[in-house]
Amino acid sequence: MPGWVIDHLNCTDKENYMTAIGVISEFCTTDLPLASFLKINGYKLIELRQKGMKGEFVFKDIPRQLLNDYNADGCSVEPKMFSSVMRQMVQSAKRFTSTQQ
After folding, report:
1. pLDDT for res 24
2. Mean pLDDT per 10-residue interval, the chain, length 101 residues
3. How many helical (H) and strand (E) elements, i.e. helices and strands, does the chain have?
4. Torsional sign, CA 10, 11, 15, 16
5. Fewest CB within 10 A of the end CB: N or C in the chain?
């Protein structure tokens, strides 16, 4: 289904379509390496929430298959990019959790 068609579906139909094709419309994680991996791969960080003493990263429209590949060690990224993005994510989480206390 073309993207312009998906954009014009009502919320329920869009959610049903995304679920059927294996996409998680709102994916939340406190796993910093996973959050960094998603960010490197171009997935949009839509929100940062506090979950206990940690930051919870919320991403939009994540394919289930990508998460399966990540969990099965089937993905790789450039190490320097990963290190840089991970530092940025840590700083974002620290800033966020310190302002929430």
Report:
1. 86
2. 44 53 85 93 91 86 89 88 92 75 58
3. 5, 3
4. negative
5. C
Residue-level pLDDT at 1: 41
Burial of residue 39 (number of CB atoms within 10 Å: 0-12, 13-18, 19+): buried
57 closest CA partner among 84, 11, 96: 96
Q: Is 9 left (phi over 0), alpha (psi -120 to 50) or beta?
A: beta
Enumerate the domain spans of the chain.
24-100
Q: CA nearest 65: which of 27, 11, 92, 91?
A: 27
pLDDT at 21: 63
Helix (H, G, I), strand (E, B) or coil at 48: strand
Helix axes 64-71, 32-40, angle to 10 degrees: 120
